[in-house]
Structure formats: structure tokens, C-alpha cells
């Protein structure tokens, strides 16, 4: 062989049957419009709603990473949407870290506080995303009382009047809705740990 010839890298072996199934699951999640909307909403909450192009770029990067790592996906541990969401969250964290390293200052504590504040905001935004997913799983009558109580600051008598039900029924619905939200959060946490 002459010096001018180069060796082509060996081609990877074709995917095995389980890998093909994983690729199909990930592809379906990536093609799902509701998954795309949720990822984009999460990205926009991080970069600001005026930076739609940057949010789309970040979602695209997360999808690319997910596709490249599809062979590592474990369907028994987490849903495809949350798995892809994890890539998106990690991209934000990497961006926060790289921005904090780019800051030059003589005081190390000044360098730590912006990064930790950004990390805290990411965690809060991540929690909001999950709570919104749980909220959307509630029955409509439970969503209505939670929305009125926590987003509109309505009191029990006002909610009862607007819904045409008794004050006691409003309290019962709030209690049951909060229990359902707790159960969804616990189930999601256990799913993530197993």
C-alpha cells in the first residue's frame, strides 16, 4: 500500500433487533408533535420567549444527541419524552457552565454565584415543566379548581359560585386534585429511580 492511500474507518455493524426497536421508539417520540411542543416550550422558558430561534436550535441539538445515543435508551426506566428532555436539560446546564467559565473575575465567589443561580433557575424551570405535565393529566373538574385557587387566587366561595357547586365540594376537589398531583410526582420519581 502506498503512502498516499488512507485507511477508511471500519463500518459499524448493522443494528441488532433490539437496537432497531429502540430506534423506532426514539424516532416515534421525535416525530410526535406533542413531544416537540413540550420540548420547545421548555427550551423557550429557559432562553426567553423572544429567542424562538435559539430555543429551536437547542431542541434540535437535544434531538440529535438523543438519536446518536438511541442505543443507550432503556424503555423500562423512563419514557422517551423524558429521556429526550434530559438531553435538553443537560445542554442548558452545559451552556450555563461554559458561560460562567467565560467570566473573568478576581473574586472566585463572584464566579460561583451566577452559575449557581442559573442552575437554580434550571431546576425550578424543570420542576415547572413536570408540574405542568402532571396538571394536564388531572380531570377537568380538578384542573379548574387548582387553576382558580393557585393561579387566579380565588377563594372557596368564589370558586363554588363560579362552578355552581357547594363550598364543601370545592374543598373536596382541591384535596383530591392535590393527592393526584402528589401520586403522579411520586410515580414519576420512582420511575426515574428504577
Walk me through what this model shows.
With 194 residues, the chain is an all-alpha fold. It has 2 domains: 16-137, no CATH class; 138-194, Winged helix-like DNA-binding domain superfamily/Winged helix DNA-binding domain (Arc Repressor Mutant, subunit A). Helices cover 76% and strands 0% of the residues. It is built from 8 helices and no strands. Helix 4 (80-102) packs antiparallel against helix 5. The protein is elongated, with a radius of gyration of 23 Å. The N and C termini lie far apart (53 Å). The model is unreliable at 103-113 (pLDDT under 50).
Silhouette: elongated
What Rg is obtained from the alpha carbons, in whole angstroms? 23 Å
What structural category do the secondary elements indicate? mainly alpha
Segments where pLDDT lies below 50 for 5+ residues? 103-113
Q: What number of domains? A: 2
Which sheet architecture does the biggest sheet show? none
What level of helicity do the residues show?
over 70%
Number of strands: 0
Order of helices and strands: HHHHHHHH
What's the overall average pLDDT, rounded?
Answer: 76
Distance between the termini: 53 Å
Oligomer: single chain
Please tally the helical runs, counting DSSP H or I stretches of 4 or more residues: 8
Beta-strand fraction estimate: under 5%
